[in-house]
Amino acid sequence: DQQVKQNSPSLSVQEGRISILNCDYTNSMFDYFLWYKKYPAEGPTFLISISSIKDKNEDGRFTVFLNKSAKHLSLHIVPSQPGDSAVYFCAASFQGAQKLVFGQGTRLTINP
Amino acid sequence: DTGVSQDPRHKITKRGQNVTFRCDPISEHNRLYWYRQTLGQGPEFLTYFQNEAQLEKSRLLSDRFSAERPKGSFSTLEIQRTEQGDSAMYLCASSLALAGIREFFGPGTRLTVL
What we know:
By secondary structure, chain A is mainly β. In chain A, 0% of the residues lie in helices and 54% in strands. Helix content of chain B is 0%, strand content 49%. Chain B has strands at 5-7, 10-13, 19-24, 31-37, 44-50, 53-57, 65-68, 75-79, 88-95, 104-105, 109-113.
């Protein structure tokens, strides 16, 4: 039962353009969402989060959008830089749960 | 650097052997989590501690797995009678209870069972 899904295993974007990573969830109880970035041989590092009371959260080049009716969120990176090449995980949680449920990840490659 | 540390980073063992991994969380964090990640998948929750109390265990955590956090600081994860299906990356994370669900991850221990 995959409650958080990232349907694109990989994405390739040209440097300077916008990267859009997508994530869908099925559990309507989820009320907090996070994006993590993972480089090889390192643990995931927190990137940005959003609460279900918001539909957008922005931090520098990174913006997360939440569409609760569609149970969909997306991460926009603009402009994309070579250092953004990594695996990106979407994660979700809900009030009272002390754990994260992760998607399968999307490997983003930024081409020069 | 006072991030989450894990030891060892890599472990190769033969099927049937026991292995133990250690995690040192960020010092002021009272919550500690263990996750397992297999190839092509995201991390999957195994268990978590608040201080020394183990408060939740996933059904993924069979009776061959045991985790401890004896003094509310570092934690150990032991796998007894390892099987080839146990081969995975074992990730530890920590967080501060009053700071929400944002978890800080260590680099992981990669286990290979031959």
